[in-house]
Every structure is written in C-alpha cells, then in structure tokens.
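Task 17 of the worksheet. Students: predict the tertiary structure of the chain below and write it out as structure tokens. Keep your answer in the requested format; marks are given for formatting as well as content.
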Amino acid sequence: MMPTQQSDHTLPLQKTESSPLSRRAKDRDVFRILFISMILFGLLMGVAFPPLVNSYFNDSGSVSLSFTLMCIAAGITVGIANYILFSIVISKELHYLVEGMNRVNNHISAALFSRKLRTETFEIEVKSNDMIGQVTMAFNTMGKTVEQRLLNETRFRNLTSDLSANVALDKTAAIILHYFIDATCMTSGLLYGKIEEEMTLLSSKGIDTDEKLPRKLEIWQGPIHDAIQSGEPCTLDTESNCIDWITTTTPYGSIRPKLIRIIPLIAEKSTVGLVISACGQSPMSESIQLETLKTYSSYMAPYLQNSLLHNKIQEMASYDFLTHVLNRRFGLIRLHEEFTTAQRHQSDLSVVMIDIDKFKTINDTHGHEGGDQVLKTLTSTLSLHLRNEEIICRYGGEEFLIILPMTNLNKAGLVAERLRDLVEQQTFFYKNKVILVTISLGVSSLSSLVTQNENDLINAADTALYHTKAMGRNQVSIFRNNEAVLLPKNKPALS
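Model answer:
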C-alpha cells in the first residue's frame, strides 16, 4: 500500500519562455520619451526666460531676438546634457540590475531542470538606497521565495525517494525524524508511533534516551491528548506543563529545552504518530514555521502509517498463532543472527531443544483443544522464566527451540534443568481436569562443537534430545565430546 503523493510536489516541471512584447510595449521607449521630454523642457525654459528678464527690468528693449534665440539654444543644450548624464548614470545601474536578474534567472532555470538545488545565491547586491535599490530588494525577496520553494521541492523529492525505498519501521521513523529536524527549526526530537493503541517510541535524535524518557506515552490526558484531539502542532513551556523527561547532554552538562513542540502525524483522519521536538532559533516567522510543520506532517504521515501496517503484518507473520511465540521460520532467522554475532565477537551460543513427553496421549485423552491448552500454558511458563535476550520459538508441533546468547554448555544445562523442573511442578488444567505434563530437553553449545553453521548446533541439540527420550524422558541431556550425556536431576534454585 503506497501513500498517495501530494499533487503540489509531483507536477512535472516545464520550461517557460519569456513573454512576447505587446504592441504598446514595442512602441514605447522610456529613454526616447525622456529625451523628448528634456528637449521640450529646455525649449520651454529657453522661450520662457526672455519674457521673465524683460518683466524684471521693465524694459521691452532689453531683450533682443538674438538673446531669445541664445536662451532657447541654451535650454535645448542643457536638456540634451541632462539626458546624456542621466542616461550614463541610470543606464549603468539598470545594466547591473538587468545582468543580475538574468544571472539569477539562469540559476533558477538550471536548478529547475537539473532537479537539483545549486549553491549559487539567488540575490543581487543592493548598491543604492533609492528606487533602483527598492526594485533590487523586491527582486531579491522574490528570489528567496523561489529558492525556498526549490529547496522544499528538493527535500520532498529526496524524502519521497528515501521513504519509498524503505518499509522497515525503524528506518522509516529515522528518516521522518531526520527530515523534520533538517527542514524546520527543530534541534532535536522524538518520534512516537501508534502500535496497539499506544504511542510507542520509534526514533530519537539529540535527546537523552535514559530511564526518564518514556517508551510509551500516556495519551489520555494532558497536552499530548490536547494535541491529538486538535490535530494541530502546539508549542508548550516545559516548566508549566511538567514535562521534565526531555533533556539533551551538552559539553556544559544536561539541559532541558524551555519550549517544545508536539506535532501530530495524521493519516486518514487518525493520529498515527507524534513528533515531540525541542525548539531552536529560526529566521522564519512563527506562522511560517507552523505551516511548514503541518505540510511535512501531512506528507510523512501516510508513509509512517504504511510502515506501521507493514510492521504489524511482519509481526503477525513471525509469531505462532496459538502460542504467541516466534514461529520456526523467524526463530531460525534469529538463530542465524545470534550465530553470526557469536562468531563476530567470539562469544558462546547455546540452544535447547524441548519436546513434550507423550503429547499424543494428551491429545487422545483430552482432545486437540486440551492439547492446545497445554501448549499455551507451557509456552507462557517458559517465556515467563527466560531473560529478555533469550529467545523461544515453536519448532514443530510439540517441539520448541530456545536460543541462549552468550551462554556456555554448563550454564545452558542449568537453564534446561531449571525449565524442566518448572514444567514438572506446574499444574496444567483443562475443563477443571488436571493434566500431568513433563518435557524432555537436549542442549548443545557452539564452543563444544566444530561447526560452520547453526544447523550443526540444532542437530547436536536434537541428538541430545533423542538420547533423553531413549533414557526415559523428563530429563536433560547435553551434547559434549561428540556424544550425548544425561544430566542428573539436581533441581537448581530458581532465579
């Protein structure tokens, strides 16, 4: 299921040509109008000056024809001189402005058609504090707007490429958080995703992930609930809202941001995630920041929803439906991962094969529903008494495989005997009837074998398991020195 792309960011870029000059523009030349205006102004001044002189001296004979013609010629000459000076000064400034505009336009065109943002600036240097300077600043403002649009287009293309290439939840979450921090005023942040109706921490950047940081959020009250209800980004003061679990370690010690933002990620009218970020300084206004956050959140939310759905499907595919432990396929994948880790770090690795004794008799006596209840109770008991790093999977019908990372053969034997004793002491019920259940176990370790792959480890444990069953069941055997050895029932203390 691929998220729908926003039309704003997928329209093909098309080359635009300069608009043709209108007939009125073709017939209009500002410099020609200026030249004619200055000539006419000089002529007017030359004609008006003799009467002014005549009026000043009150003598009609003081102004001769030759003086009048000379004044007219002087006025025309001054008009021509003013035009020439104006053209020299203004043309130079306008030429600089036109060259700058053409250069910026070429940069914009190159960025558009290469679909890559260049390093050239989209600005012209402002050299005067007049109308030409104002025109230059207005053009620079337009250039910055175009540059920001191209930057957003580039980010969205890269974001689309990165998110489309990943469906794994951890990678998708890291990409989303990275782009939020890169494109906004955020300096650090957390991304929570909705898993099983709970907001679960998926990714963090720049935030201390210590014991104070909640892995799951309480979303039913407080500012987080308000943000989810409103569906809008909100800014909070950490002190007044008692949010003291967001801290950042710096060379000067651990600090807590004064302001944080909560940004809901909404897909199909449902909040699928939350970004909680520390706010930093930004040249953008508050309104533009909020619009940017809303744009990014609406764009990223479908990808997060898609990844959460994929993760849910993966989990459903990896777990056995009846017992809710890993199925054989994913159990063997985990074994391969632990085997590779053990070889890389030269550490030990042990496995335990478990088989329920006389399970067919249980099925024949209590039916398949009774057998299913035994399987569920058994896996619940075993899982409860395993460490977090120890892995259990359903290997077959009534067979289970336990993976014990960084555990040698002796310790694995103790773990197996402890589990055997737990099951023997456990009371199994079905329809108010007690079912007696015991298990047989076989153990092998990497350090006790000459092996190149994890299959040899399983085969050795399986050999030990068959030895246990041949020796009377409800016991533990270990594979050592190329043979299976039965362990005594020493009932070690529970840990």
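Marker's comment: The chain has a mean pLDDT of 81. The CA atoms of residues 35 and 84 lie 9 Å apart.
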